[in-house]
Structure formats: structure tokens, C-alpha cells
């Protein structure tokens, strides 16, 4: 038996935000078993946590099709479970991950992720982007993901990407892996900035709320708006709210979470 939770992250309402699976095995299962569990769960990410001798937690993230190296909402969901179940007196949690040590702290009802900043640089406006989105981007940037700038929130909300075409970006950009997504962003009408996130190559057509995207969005909008602390919203069907703080080489991404499910996986 393996303890299992589903947590809606970056929201204070059930059925909002981004649902993440959180698995707490006693020891690491084989990689193929973790991938099979993530595929069976069919959430954008499933996290696996194992406590280590140094007091930190090892943390790995899987989409339905592959393991990724950075995930915000499943880290927030993992911290929510640990603070509520196993580390109730802790103020900070430390995770060893493929992206180095990550920490999560409590700030009232908010859980605050300390993540690496991943600023983007301008890159070619690859033809597949325009064909897939049906609009001409104002600019295209690249970091661990691609970031596409559009003129306003209305344009962003109306996007209906052709995912088969968007998947051609990998070959056009000469990438040798599928661990990337496409962020589309614009100034916000009622917040500082808004975004959507698509990762069809990783088995996630549209991610409801994406913490890792804000490692790239935060430094971009900090420079453009001149604000260190900003409110962001992700405009998926479920929607999500994030507080973003630019701290140079690190960003703080904060949000709330609610539990949907607690149970056990039989393996």
C-alpha cells in the first residue's frame, strides 16, 4: 500500500487550480512503476516523496508520459500534505530534486515556493507557433520553456491551439527532449499579468496552473512592470492565482491549496 493524495494547488476552492497527485512510498519504487502510476492517475503531474536521512525529502515529478525536472504545483501540493500530515510543527520544508534544493515555507495560509529564476532570451518566432496559435506573436522568448507574448488578456483567453502543430516546435527548434512547454502571456486586466501553458510533447495539452512557468514569467514582468511583487493569474478553465516575487537568482511563488482526496494505492 502507498499513501496517496490529490491536492488542488494555487487555489482556495475545490475543483479549482491544478490537481496534483502526491505519493508517499516508504522507499523509491522502480522508475517504471512511478511512471505507470502517473499514467494511471492521468493528472498533469504526480509527485513522489521519500524522507531521507538528512531530514530532507527526495521529490520527483512525473507527467502521464515522462519524468520532468521542475514542477511548481506538485511541489506546493507535496508541501501541503507534509505540513498537514507529517511535519505539522515545521515552518520550512526542504526538497532534494533534479533542479537542486527547493524549499517551501508557510506565510499564513500561503505556501511559498523558493525556486530558481529562469529568465528567457528572445528567440526566433518559429512558424509552428503562429500556425498553432492562429495569431502572430508580439515576441517569442526561450528558457526552460518557450514564452510567447500576446497583446492583451482577451487575445490570450481566445486561444484554441492546434496541439499537433504545436508539437512540431521540437523539431523546428532542434530540441532533443520533450521536457518543455509553451507559455503564452499578456498584461492582466485585473492583475499584473496573465498566462496559459501548453505542453503537448510532455503529455499535457494545457496545464491548469504552472508554477515552473512563473520562474520565467516573474523576471520578465518584473523588468517590464518595475514591480518586485506581483499578482498573476493563469487563465485555464480551472484557473489559478499566484503571488510572485523576484529575488534575483531565485523567485518566490506563493499560493494556497485544498485537499480533494486521500487514500491508498495498491501495488
Brief digest:
The chain is an alpha+beta fold and 267 residues long.
Question: Can you describe what's shown?
Answer:
With 267 residues, the chain is α+β, with helices and mostly antiparallel strands. The chain is built from seven helices and 18 strands. It has an 18-stranded mixed β-sheet that branches. A hairpin with a 5-residue loop joins strand 12 (182-187) and strand 13. It is globular, with a radius of gyration of 18 Å. 46% of the residues are buried.
Output the number of helix runs.
7
Strand/helix succession = EEHEEEHEEEEHEEHHHEEEHEEEE
Q: Tell me, what's the shape?
A: globular
Task: Report how far apart the termini are.
Answer: 6 Å
Taken as a percent bin, the fraction of beta residues is: 35-45%
Topology:
Elements: E1 2-9, E2 18-24, H1 31-41, E3 46-51, E4 57-62, E5 67-68, H2 73-85, E6 92-97, E7 100-107, E8 110-116, E9 121-122, H3 127-133, E10 139-142, E11 146-149, H4 153-158, H5 163-166, H6 169-173, E12 182-187, E13 193-199, E14 204-207, H7 213-225, E15 229-234, E16 240-247, E17 250-255, E18 257-265
Amino acid at each position: 500500500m502507498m499513501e496517496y493524495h490529490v491536492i488542488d494547488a494555487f487555489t482556495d476552492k475545490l475543483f479549482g487550480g491544478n490537481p496534483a497527485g502526491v505519493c508517499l512510498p516508504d522507499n523509491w519504487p522502480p522508475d517504471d512503476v512511478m511512471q505507470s502510476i502517473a499514467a494511471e492517475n492521468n493528472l498533469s503531474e504526480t509527485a513522489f516523496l521519500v524522507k531521507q536521512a538528512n531530514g530532507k525529502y527526495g521529490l520527483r515529478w512525473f507527467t502521464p508520459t515522462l519524468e520532468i525536472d521542475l514542477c511548481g504545483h506538485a511541489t506546493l501540493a507535496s508541501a501541503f500534505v507534509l505540513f498537514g500530515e507529517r511535519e505539522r510543527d515545521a515552518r520550512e520544508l526542504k526538497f532534494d530534486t533534479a533542479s537542486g534544493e527547493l524549499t517551501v515555507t508557510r506565510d499564513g495560509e500561503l505556501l511559498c515556493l523558493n525556486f530558481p529564476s529562469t529568465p528567457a532570451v528572445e528567440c526566433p518566432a518559429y512558424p509552428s507557433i503562429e500556425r498553432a496559435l492562429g495569431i502572430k506573436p508580439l515576441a517569442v522568448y526561450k528558457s526552460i520553456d518557450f514564452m510567447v507574448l500576446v497583446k492583451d488578456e482577451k487575445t490570450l483567453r481566445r486561444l484554441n491551439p492546434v496541439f499537433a502543430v504545436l508539437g512540431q516546435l521540437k523539431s523546428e527548434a532542434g530540441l532533443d527532449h520533450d521536457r518543455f512547454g509553451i507559455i503564452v502571456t499578456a498584461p492582466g486586466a485585473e492583475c499584473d499579468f496573465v498566462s496559459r501553458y501548453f505542453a503537448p510533447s510532455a503529455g499535457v495539452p494545457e496545464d491548469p496552473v504552472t508554477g515552473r512557468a512563473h520562474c520565467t514569467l516573474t523576471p520578465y514582468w518584473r523588468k517590464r512592470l518595475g514591480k518586485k511583487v506581483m499578482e498573476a493569474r493563469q487563465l485555464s478553465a480551472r484557473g489559478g492565482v499566484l503571488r510572485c516575487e523576484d529575488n534575483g537568482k531565485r523567485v518566490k511563488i506563493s499560493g494556497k491549496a485544498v485537499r480533494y482526496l486521500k487514500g491508498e494505492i495498491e501495488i
